Amino acid sequence: MTDVTVVVNGQLRGATVPPETTLLQLLREHFHLTGAKLGCDVGDCGACTVIVDGMAVNSCLMLAGQVDGRSVTTIEGLASREQLHPIQKAFEESGALQCGFCGPGAIMATKALLDENPEPAIKDIRDALSGSLCRCTGYTKMIEAVQEAARVLRSESPKQLTHAQP
Amino acid sequence: MDDKTKILEREQLDIEEPLRGADVELRLPMVTPREPFPIEPLTVDARQQTRAVGQRATRPDGRLHGLGQTKYIDDLKFPGMLYARIKRAGIASARIKRIDTSAAEAMPGVMAVLTGKEIPVNSFGPSFQDQPVLVDEQVFHAGDGVAAVAAVTEQIANEALDKIVVEYEPLPAVLDPVAAMREDSPKVHAPNSNIYATKVIRKGDVEKGFAESDHIFEGRFATQMIEHVSLEPHAAIADWDANGRLTIYATIGRITLARSDIARTLKMPMSRIRIVGTIVGGNFGGKNEITQEPALALLSKKTGRPVKGLFTRSEEFTSTTTRHPIIMDYKTGVSKSGRIIARQIRLVLDGGAYCSWSETTLGKACILSPGPYKIDNVLAEAFVVYTNKTMTGAMRGFGAPQVCFAYESQMDDIAKALKIDPLEIRLLNAFDEGSPSPTGQVLHSVVVKETLNKAADRFGWEPRS
Predict the structure, then answer these.
(1) Which of A43, A89, B206, B285 is spaced 20 to 30 Å from B231 by Cα?
(2) With an 8 Å Cβ cutoff, is B280 touching chain A?
(3) pTM for this model (two decimals)
(4) Which residue of B has its CA nearest to A99?
(5) Domain A2-77, CATH 3.10.20.30 — does that match?
(6) What is the ipTM of this complex?
(7) Minimal Cα distance from A79: which residue of B?
(8) What is the helix (H) or strand (E) element at residue A52, kind and residue range?
């Protein structure tokens, strides 16, 4: 058995799991965070994407033991009780979520992108979402949603606000 | 006498029982609504745009999807739940000589093993009931299930599959649909013919039409098998309770059809089966019928515990329905100006091992095969044949995309040969308002020409003739 201590969505969590447990299983079965989905189990579809120390990863390919001492953000960590995260809002309003199965993964991939690059070009968005397969939307709505979310996040960020005030 | 008085007395009483305060709110008004329901159905004229056009709509479930709060089957868990896995045949055509499950059953953590022989009525299907839940005597394609295991973890269930020994006697496999149509071909479902459904559409006289044509074009077009690849794999949870009632949580688009199919396979009244259709993580036609549900139900019955079954991605490709590959022969007679005079079509649909929604697909492919063009002489013949491959079934369009690929490819060939602009030749032949379809249906709301012109205008089509 492997002991894992990990910060999940800002909270320190611990679990003792069999060594072959993947990060996805740790999140879904031990922490009951079922937002990240099992789509292919081989790292192709991106439905299981979460953020580990700022980087989007396929949680089905990462072992639980590998996140020991690190910080994981999942889809459950984005919205507060009061409001949606701008990316979630943009995805919802642009119709980028249809059956919704790829949504959590795509939103987390977007989050990792926008944290790094607040003004992504369409090419950057396509690159960032290339690991998130979607069979419903045809991706155009997702790209629109990412652009919209980037716009909102830029206008919300404090740096931009100080610029706006002379 | 006494009884009668009692009844009379009771009738005289105020029969309206006093209701608790909370329930008063729930009661329907006793007076009829002032505005009667419209008896005339609200219909709009064929080309009138409704107010919905151009409106922005959001999905009612979009919020939960974005929050990651939507519960798909795999997100559900019940106390004591077991995990089921199905052993796949891995051979296209064979007779099953022996299935030995004893080693798997002896494994700690394995709660039950199920084979096809234990299923009360081992066949289902929306048109023909030709598909077994788990094959018992003969394997029809490599993705067939031969046995199912329920264990306390998925890992143990997987290990148990390796311990199930199946002895096969290989049979000749039928893989080419055209060869399968020959009389001397081995039969997939012997003694029945491999051709299990046909459709013919005749309009006018094609031979006369070809004689009148200036040019005749012939071509063969073929499409491949396509899997839906919905992001959520097929999944279900079956719970057979001590009362003999069955609840199935399933990622199925047609829960009523599933209910009758499950009732048939399990030989139990439909009233004892409850199907909970959860949010489906992508269907595209691939989740329109049952797959593993009866097996899960029987495993639940054997163990007395809820059983979850989740297909792996590779099972999605081998053991669920796919889009029909079609071999399409087109012969088209045209005038010098490019007007289509006659079109003869022969479609051979590769139906795979089981019928599934092939009959529906066959019909739609055949009806649409001449294309959206005014053709006086049409002969379309379509056949769907059994092969020892993954079964083909419903997928978006039911055969329409395949034939569209064929007739539009041929339109381009004709345009090129006659040196006519590809757009012109389509505008010359396309349906008008009120044109009859190949089956004689008078068509309304026909805007194919307007659409073509508008599209050509938008993307800057320049005549290439």
Answers:
(1) A89
(2) yes
(3) 0.88
(4) B281
(5) yes
(6) 0.92
(7) B67
(8) strand A49-52
